[in-house]
Structures are given as structure tokens and as C-alpha cells.
């Protein structure tokens, strides 16, 4: 082949390659991005489809090797007349697979189109083999103050709405969940008239709230509890709507108290690094036990775009503190968490 022909052939091959690569690129949806191997607090957190995770005000349960994350599904494509709960699963707490829109309901109690369904939490009852979902149900002025219950026989199945009630006959707005090391299940709920929050044991079938364990005399919402080395740590935020505030915690050696004075989990001027508590996850590994703060950084004007602030906390001997959010990773087998310097991929 003479040099002119060789040049033309090479150029043709190059152009073909460029077209092929462009065609492959076009085959990917515009939103598809590779999920990060790190947890990047405050960044967009993408699921296996490359779509931002919709599990706000969430709750997480651990079954076998899998964690399931349930939360408010606030996608922009949702029907505005309905409220949604989404479910994701993960074996490493970093990569999350979208499982299902496990609840999509229109006004279940004639509360008006702007009814509220927030902070869903799912408990697995080993006796009945049912998954029982608790949610905060309200009207648009937050005056109903009830919990609603829905059930499913599959973790990521479609949950059937059952009823709504005031736990222990008390007003209940934000709810949290706590499952103790012995498997017993508790609902945490904020009750405004009494200026505090309750920790209450669920009934044997989890379909109702049976017994008050503690009344914590501090008006706090976003309640979460972890049990570590014989001490219970209860965490919550003050009541400032969607605006972040300095979240606080107290400790007790029994769920029935007495509880210590509340203390800040982060420098108060950071307003908990602009987040609000939702859950504390305990990861007991072969080398260590880590506790992860799960918080929401709300964007009230675009709730779907609210971000997640997850960070391993420094915890022990009655102290709990939330470090400044930065990228980190976790090995769920060993329980070891590692802060990774902020170098974007
Ligand atoms: C704070 C609560 O924690 C949220 O779940 C939500 O109810 C907002 N208040 C509404 O203002």
C-alpha cells in the first residue's frame, strides 16, 4: 500500500472508531453515572440505575447479609395526589439497588390532597413473618398527629395499608425506630403537648404500640437510638421545621431511663453540619463495631433533591460526636470505617 492509501485507510478506521464510541455513549441514559465506592455526605447519592436515591427521613433494617433502606420517595415524577415509600437494598451500605416503590397511596383517611406521610420505618416480625411499616400520617397543618401502619409478607413487596392511630393515645409526629440487641422493637415518637418524646415497645405482632418504656423530657424530633456496650444513646433534633439545628443526645443504662442531660453531637454553630437525625446504624464487624449517623439535609423547595449526611460517629463511654462530613468508606465484614481524603474521581 502506498503512503497516500495507507493515510486514507487509517483516517477511515479512526473515524469509524469515533462513530462507534459516540453510538455507545448515546445508548446510555443521560443520567447514568457510575455510583461512587465511597459514601460522600451531601453529594448526589445514586442507586444501581444511576438515579438519585429517594429514601428521605428513612429507616434501615438488617436481614441476613442485606440492609434495606426505606424512606420517603419524593421523585419529581410522582403523582402529587399520592405519597410514596421506596425500598433499596445493599450488602455494603454504599451501593444501593432500587427494589420497589413499596407504597404509593392516595389520601387514606380523607385528610385532603395535601396530606402528609413522612419518616416510614419497617420492622420485621419473626413470629408472624410480616414486615410492618410505621409512618407519620398527618393533614397539611400537622394537626392529626397519628401513625399509620401498612404490612407486607415480602420485604420489598407492595405494602397494604391497615389503619392509623395515636400511639398510647398520644399525639405523634416524627417517628423513629429502634431494634434492640435481643430483637425487641420500639417506636420513638415526638409528642408536642407533653414537650418530649416517647420510647414505646411494639405489641407482639408489631401491629400496635403496647407499652411506654420512657418519656424523655425534651421536645425533640428525628429520634434515633443505638445500644452500645451496655449504654443506650438517644439522639434527636430540636423542632425547627425543615431548618437544621444543633442535634443533641442523652444516655441511659436502661431504655426506661433515667436519661442524662442532653448534649450537642457537633459544634452548635454548624447546625449538625446542616442536617437532621433520622437513624443510627450499628455495624458489628469482626474487628470493631461502628455506629453510623444517618441524617437528612433537607431542601424544602425541592424535597426530592434533599441529600443524605451519613458519617461514622465517635462514640463510647457516654460520649457521642459527629465528625465533619467528608468522604469515607466502610468494610461491613470488619466494621472498620476509613475517612478518605476528598479527591473527586
Ligand atoms: C421536621 C420533621 O423532622 C420533618 O420530618 C418534617 O415533618 C418537617 N419538620 C416539616 O416541617
Q: Considering the protein shown, what is the CATH homologous superfamily?
A: Glycosyl hydrolase domain, family 43
CATH topology: Tachylectin-2, Chain A
The total count of strands amounts to 23
Number of helices: 2
Low-confidence stretches: 11-15, 17-32
Question: How far do the termini sit from each other?
Answer: 44 Å
Structural class per helix/strand content?
mainly beta
Mean pLDDT across every amino acid position: 91
Written description of the protein model:
With 345 residues, the chain is mainly β. The chain has a single domain (33-339), classed as Tachylectin-2, Chain A, CATH 2.115.10.20. The chain is built from two helices and 23 strands. The chain has helices at 3-27, 271-274; strands at 56-63, 66-73, 82-90, 97-106, 116-125, 130-138, 146-152, 160-165, 175-179, 185-191, 196-202, 209-216, 221-228, 231-237, 248-252, 263-264, 276-284, 289-297, 307-312, 314-316, 319-321, 328-331, 336-339. The strands form seven sheets. A four-stranded antiparallel β-sheet has the order 1-2-3-4, with no helix packed on it. Strand 9 and strand 10 (185-191) form a beta hairpin. It is globular and about 50 Å long. The two termini are 44 Å apart. The relative contact order is 0.11. The model is unreliable at 11-15 and 17-32 (pLDDT under 50). Residues 57, 118-119, 174, 221-222, 241-242, 276 line the site of (2R,3S,4R,5S)-2-(hydroxymethyl)piperidine-3,4,5-triol.
Amino acid at each position: 500500500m502506498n503512503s497516500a492509501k495507507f493515510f486514507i485507510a487509517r483516517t477511515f478506521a479512526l473515524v469509524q472508531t469515533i462513530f462507534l464510541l459516540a453510538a455507545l455513549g448515546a445508548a446510555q441514559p443521560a443520567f447514568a453515572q457510575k455510583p461512587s465506592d465511597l459514601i460522600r455526605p451531601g453529594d448526589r447519592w445514586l442507586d444501581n440505575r444511576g438515579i438519585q436515591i429517594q429514601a428521605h427521613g428513612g429507616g434501615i433494617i438488617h436481614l441476613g447479609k442485606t440492609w434495606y433502606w426505606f424512606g420517603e420517595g419524593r421523585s419529581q415524577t410522582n403523582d402529587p395526589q399520592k405519597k410514596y415509600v421506596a425500598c433499596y437494598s445493599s450488602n455494603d451500605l454504599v451501593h444501593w439497588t432500587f427494589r420497589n416503590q413499596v407504597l404509593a397511596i392516595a389520601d387514606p383517611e380523607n385528610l385532603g390532597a395535601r396530606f402528609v406521610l413522612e419518616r416510614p420505618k419497617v420492622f420485621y416480625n419473626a413470629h408472624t413473618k410480616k414486615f410492618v411499616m410505621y409512618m407519620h400520617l398527618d393533614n397539611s397543618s400537622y394537626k392529626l398527629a397519628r401513625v399509620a401502619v401498612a404490612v407486607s409478607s415480602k420485604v420489598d413487596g407492595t405494602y397494604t395499608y391497615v389503619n392509623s392511630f395515636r400511639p398510647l393515645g398520644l399525639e405523634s409526629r416524627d417517628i423513629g425506630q429502634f431494634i434492640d440487641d435481643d430483637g425487641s422493637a420500639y417506636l420513638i415518637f415526638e409528642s408536642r403537648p407533653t414537650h418530649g418524646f416517647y420510647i414505646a415497645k411494639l405489641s407482639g405482632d408489631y401491629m400496635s404500640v403496647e407499652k411506654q418504656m420512657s418519656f424523655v423530657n425534651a421536645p425533640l424530633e428525628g429520634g434515633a437510638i443505638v445500644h452500645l456496650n451496655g449504654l443506650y444513646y438517644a439522639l434527636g433534633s430540636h423542632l425547627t421545621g425543615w431548618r437544621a439545628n444543633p442535634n443533641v443526645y442523652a444516655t441511659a443504662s436502661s431504655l426506661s431511663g433515667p436519661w442524662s442531660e442532653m448534649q450537642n453531637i457537633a459544634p452548635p454553630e454548624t447546625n449538625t453540619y446542616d442536617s437532621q437525625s433520622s437513624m443510627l446504624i450499628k455495624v458489628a464487624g469482626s474487628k470493631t463495631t461502628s455506629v453510623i449517623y444517618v441524617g437528612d439535609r433537607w431542601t424544602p423547595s425541592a424535597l426530592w433533591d434533599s441529600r443524605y449526611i451519613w458519617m461514622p460517629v465517635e462514640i463510647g463511654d457516654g460520649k457521642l460526636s459527629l465528625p465533619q462530613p467528608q468522604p469515607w468508606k466502610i468494610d461491613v465484614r470488619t466494621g472498620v470505617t476509613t475517612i478518605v481524603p476528598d479527591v473527586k474521581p
